[in-house]
Amino acid sequence: MDDEPLLPRRVTVLGEAMQSLWRKIATRLDDPVTPSIPVYGMTEIVSHHLDELQSFAHRLNDWVNGLMSDEVENENAADSDVYRAVGRFEAFASLIFL
Questions:
Q1: Contact predicate 14/71, CB 8 Å
Q2: So where are the chain's domains?
Q3: Residue 27: enclosing H or E segment and its boundaries?
Q4: What gap in Å lies between CA 87 and CA 50, rounded to an integer?
């Protein structure tokens, strides 16, 4: 008897489908940082960017929850459904990361 739990195929496919996005994000994380110079009004600029980041975090949470409910929890999700959902997620992430 095998004591290892088996993941549903749709979860494995989700992991496979996300590999491309992960590689793109990992590549961007390795990008060199651009040198900076002092900027007038930096406090306002940083505040604005932090507001945008907070908004993005909420949208990212919604997208991940959508993947979980629409694909992972859906026992009828086909491989093609998972790949389409990941494609939509990648399009969303491309606006922010890539």
A1: yes
A2: 43-98
A3: helix 9-29
A4: 27
**Residue labelled with tokens 């390795």:** 30
CA proximity to 66, closest of 86, 49, 51, 93 = 86
pTM for the full predicted model: 0.72
> Among 70, 77, 81, 86, which residue's Cα sits nearest to residue 8?
77
DSSP state letters, 65-86: HHHIIIIIS-TT--HHHHHHHH
The per-residue pLDDT for range 49-86, each reduced to its tens digit, is 899 889 888 888 998 999 898 888 998 999 999 999 99
Tell the burial category of 93 from Cβ atoms under 10 Å away from its Cβ (0-12, 13-18, 19+). middle
